[in-house]
TrEMBL record:
Keywords: Pyridoxal phosphate. It holds the Pfam family Aminotran_3. SUPFAM superfamilies: PLP-dependent transferases. InterPro entries: Aminotrans_3 (IPR005814), PyrdxlP-dep_Trfase (IPR015424), PyrdxlP-dep_Trfase_major (IPR015421), PyrdxlP-dep_Trfase_small (IPR015422). This is Glutamate-1-semialdehyde 2,1-aminomutase. PANTHER family: GLUTAMATE-1-SEMIALDEHYDE 2,1-AMINOMUTASE, GLUTAMATE-1-SEMIALDEHYDE 2,1-AMINOMUTASE 1, CHLOROPLASTIC-RELATED. Belongs to the class-III pyridoxal-phosphate-dependent aminotransferase family. It comes from Baudoinia panamericana (strain UAMH 10762) (Angels' share fungus). It comes from the Eukaryota. Its cofactor is pyridoxal 5'-phosphate. GO terms for molecular function: pyridoxal phosphate binding; transaminase activity.
Length: 422
């Protein structure tokens, strides 16, 4: 209660902007995840690895735009690319461009895809990957997993699809990291077109899929004649060839999004040539795939510049190692408490669990201590850290080591301050 009162007192401008916004937006915003009680913080601008609120508070940005903000808010290469695209190419040209072809080639090379198509978001990428799988197999059902999130209309908080999901009757939900349950559901259900899974569940936050589980469902999908789709919208940043290259998976299709558009709206899906041929308009009976902004010039140019000039394989590996060290330090700082740290590379999950469980295999194991979780969010903001309330951190490339150190110190101080609760 005291933390909420301090929050209200520190953010009067956000409060009044929220009340005004709620007159035209339900709840005063457009992204459910960003609504935080008692009202969302309004940010005014970002610069480098920081965001500055309408109330003038400066935060180190650990939201990192849910992984899309890898390059930070003012990366000079991204900035120059956007400017030169505006100056020399223009906004969408209502036509196919070189920008789209060069970005497609680079992503195919990096992630080992035969063919790819672009969309406006990760949600759309998954929608199309599923359509492709259905057309290719002539089947309809899709196996997904508890805790999975594949976009705004595909979320599976538990055994049931969320009520706003598309195709409500077509989902079969198996338990994440439970090989037996997954094998049974994949191999014994009829009409399975696809198995759709994240190698690490981003909105868990950061519940890691075991190598054995992911390999087992890949083989079961093959046995069942279903298309195995790996959702790498969040995880593609974890290694030069994505999480699949770390685990040795060979998905039939992969979906992408986030930073691969350089910070501009972006999505993509691709994989095996025989499946993707479904979209080749030179053949008859093909599937149409349209979208005004699919090949938007700014996203194609910024995405390509980011991947070719900034997030090179060497930078990607160094950044992931940096994230691993940071997470290890947080794990040491939180051992023996209700605070649990999960994740891989530059993606970190923070949990407050009533039973202090340290190994999270599925959302079913996650018994949240919501009071502590909320208190942590409020107090980290007072220390100048911008985080998602659910506890996911997505590191930005140029966040200095000193800020990572400061965060570890802040976490320790939080745990000391509330040692009777944690
Ligand atoms: N898939 C995963 C694993 C995601 O984390 C997200 C977004 O957070 C999506 C898909 C949807 O991407 P978008 O928000 O671009 O629609």
């Amino acid at each position: 209660v005291a933390a909420t009162a301090r929050f209200v007192a520190r953010n009067p401008t956000s409060r009044s902007l929220h009340l005004e916004a709620a007159k035209s937006l339900p709840g005063g915003n457009t992204r459910s995840l960003l609504h935080n009680a008692p009202f969302p913080v309004f940010m005014q601008r970002g610069t480098g690895y920081e965001v500055i609120s309408e109330d003038g508070h400066v935060y180190t940005d650990f939201v990192g735009e849910l992984t899309a903000g890898l390059y930070g808010h003012a990366n000079p290469i991204i900035h120059a690319t956007l400017k030169s695209t505006l100056d020399n190419v223009g906004l969408n040209l209502g036509a196919t461009t070189r920008l789209e072809a060069q970005h497609a080639r680079l992503i195919c090379e990096r992630f080992g895809l035969d063919l790819i198509r672009f969309t406006n978001s990760g949600t759309e990428a998954n929608l199309h990957a599923l359509q492709a799988a259905r057309r290719f197999t002539g089947k309809r059902k899709v196996i997904v997993f508890t805790g999975g999130y594949h976009g705004a209309v595909f979320s599976f908080p538990d055994q049931h699809p969320a009520p706003n999901n598309v195709d409500l009757d077509d989902w079969i939900v198996a338990e994440y990291n439970n090989i037996e349950d997954a094998q049974l559901k994949i191999e014994e259900s009829s009409d399975v077109a696809a198995v759709l899974v994240e190698g690490m569940q981003g909105s868990g936050p950061c519940i890691v899929g075991s190598d054995e589980f992911l390999h087992a469902i890949q083989s079961s999908a093959r046995k069942a004649g279903a298309v195995f789709i790996l959702d790498e919208v969040m995880t593609s940043r974890l290694a030069p060839g994505g999480l699949q290259s770390i685990i040795g998976l060979e998905p039939d299709m992969t979906s992408f999004g986030k930073y691969l558009g350089g910070g501009i709206t972006f999505g993509a899906f691709g994989g095996r040539a025989d499946i993707m041929a479904i979209y080749d308009p030179r053949f008859s009976g093909t599937l149409a795939h349209s979208g005004t902004f699919n090949n938007n010039t700014l996203g194609m140019a910024a995405g390509y510049a980011g991947l070719s000039q900034i997030y090179t394989p060497e930078t990607c590996m160094a950044f992931s190692s940096r994230g691993d060290v940071f997470r290890q330090r947080l794990q040491e700082a939180t051992s023996g408490t209700k605070m649990t740290i999960t994740g891989r590379g530059s993606l970190v999950g923070i949990h407050f669990l009533v039973d202090g469980c340290k190994v999270l295999r599925s959302v079913a194991d996650r018994k949240d201590d919501n009071t502590l979780k909320d208190l942590f969010w409020f107090e980290m903001m007072e220390d100048g850290f911008w985080l998602t309330r659910r506890g996911s951190l997505s590191l930005i490339l140029d966040t200095p080591r000193s800020e990572l150190d400061r965060f570890v110190r802040s976490v320790k101080a939080f745990l000391d301050r509330h040692n009777h609760l944690v």
